[in-house]
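Support request from a user on the community tier.

User writes: "When I paste my structure tokens into the form, the page sometimes reloads and wipes my input. The last time it worked, I copied everything first. Here is what I submitted, just in case something in the input itself triggers the reload:"
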């Protein structure tokens, strides 16, 4: 009886040791795999911040005061914006049913409609990531990125511009200045990205702070 109990105990200890070793190996492998993903995650963030200001700018000759855009031009711009957003956003709702991607899409569509009325023009708009403070794994194919951004916008008249389209709280603003206005927005962002279809995409974004006007 004693030998049987000892054998069972030994088998249990061996199984526990195997499971522990397997877990350690998996964690190490998973960590190494995620570290390889970090450059791709950072590239997505930088590309999006640099390219997204263009979403609010209508093509010539509509991007100037007194030149309202026709419906075909507006629809074309909105289709391009939706394709752009779907490339960089997950368009998936969380457990709470909140879908930040859809909200942002509607806000961008409203901005294009507004600018299409011809009340002003966006002369230039650009954005850059100043620094990526941290990229950490928060789940399976899920990461949290903290970064800061800055930009420069020149506009005239009554327009809405996209402040890098990083989230509904930071999606649009308005200028009613008669002459040219120069803006230098900047801010701190915490973003959750998920990997879907082999590509990292924004899922949720929180604007920690925003500066400049």
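"...and here is what came back when it finally went through:"
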């Amino acid at each position: 009886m004693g030998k049987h109990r000892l054998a069972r105990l030994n088998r249990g200890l061996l199984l526990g040791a195997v499971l522990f070793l397997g877990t350690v190996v998996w964690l190490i492998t998973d960590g190494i795999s995620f570290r390889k993903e970090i450059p791709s995650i950072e590239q997505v963030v930088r590309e999006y911040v640099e390219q997204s200001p263009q979403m609010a700018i209508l093509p010539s000759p509509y991007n100037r005061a007194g030149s309202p855009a026709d419906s075909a031009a507006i629809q074309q711009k909105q289709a391009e914006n939706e394709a752009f957003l779907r490339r960089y956003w997950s368009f998936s709702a969380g457990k709470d049913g909140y879908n930040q991607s859809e909200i942002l899409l509607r806000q961008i569509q409203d901005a294009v409609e507004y600018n299409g009325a011809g009340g002003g023009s966006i002369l230039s708009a650009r954005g850059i990531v100043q620094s990526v403070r941290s990229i950490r794994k928060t789940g399976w194919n899920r990461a949290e990125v903290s970064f800061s951004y800055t930009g420069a916008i020149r506009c005239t008249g009554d327009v809405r511009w996209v402040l890098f389209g990083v989230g509904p709280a930071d999606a649009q603003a308005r200028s009613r200045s008669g002459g040219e206005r120069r803006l230098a927005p900047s801010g701190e962002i915490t973003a959750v990205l998920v990997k879907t279809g082999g590509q990292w995409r924004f899922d949720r974004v929180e604007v920690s702070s925003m500066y400049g006007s």
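Agent notes: The reload is a front-end session timeout and is unrelated to the input. DSSP finds three helices and five strands in the chain. Strands lie at 120-139, 142-162, 172-183, 186-196, 199-211. Escalated to web team.
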